[in-house]
């Protein structure tokens, strides 16, 4: 996205705005990312791990699409959810979104970037581009300024 998402604030927003009780995050498991997984769980996400594979360039592929679709449909039919918020702009979820729409169980699709598949956009569904909410969710990193860098007075006064 070109900016870092504060997952804690995002999770609170999902709960307050869309009444999301269980927020599942489907993610490929890479052992060196243990701190990230801990942070995401502490932020309130339920992680669903997938085994990863590597492409020809050594890039990690989690391939979580089928797991997300299966979990969503099972939860719907088992009456474990009354509505879904899908965070993806991927057209691979078009059939899932159509299913949820037909069942009146789609609250919104949130596209992480300004690019969202036509297969989702054409469905006349509630759609939000996360980039439009950047100021709400951007993770700010504290950067210590060098003394005098902001032209304020230095030293002490009495």
Automatic annotation (TrEMBL):
<dbReference type="InterPro" id="IPR021139">
    <property type="entry name" value="NYN"/>
</dbReference>
<protein>
    <recommendedName>
        <fullName>NYN domain-containing protein</fullName>
    </recommendedName>
</protein>
<dbReference type="GO" id="GO:0004540">
    <property type="term" value="F:RNA nuclease activity"/>
</dbReference>
<dbReference type="Pfam" id="PF01936">
    <property type="entry name" value="NYN"/>
</dbReference>
<feature type="domain" description="NYN">
    <location>
        <begin position="3"/>
        <end position="117"/>
    </location>
</feature>
<dbReference type="InterPro" id="IPR047140">
    <property type="entry name" value="LabA"/>
</dbReference>
């Amino acid at each position: 996205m070109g900016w870092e998402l504060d997952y804690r604030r995002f999770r609170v927003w999902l709960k307050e705005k869309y009444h999301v009780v269980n927020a599942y995050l489907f993610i490929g498991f890479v052992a060196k990312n243990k701190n990230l997984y801990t942070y995401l769980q502490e932020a309130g996400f339920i992680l669903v791990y997938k085994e990863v594979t590597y492409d020809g360039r050594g890039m990690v592929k989690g391939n979580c699409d089928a797991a997300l679709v299966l979990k969503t449909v099972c939860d719907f039919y088992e009456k474990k959810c009354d509505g879904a918020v899908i965070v993806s702009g991927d057209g691979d979820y078009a059939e899932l979104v159509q299913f949820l729409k037909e069942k009146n169980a789609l609250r919104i699709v949130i596209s992480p970037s300004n690019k969202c598949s036509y297969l989702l956009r054409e469905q006349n569904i509630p759609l939000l581009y996360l980039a439009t909410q950047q100021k709400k969710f951007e993770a700010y990193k504290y950067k210590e300024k060098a003394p005098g860098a902001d032209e304020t007075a230095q030293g002490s006064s009495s």
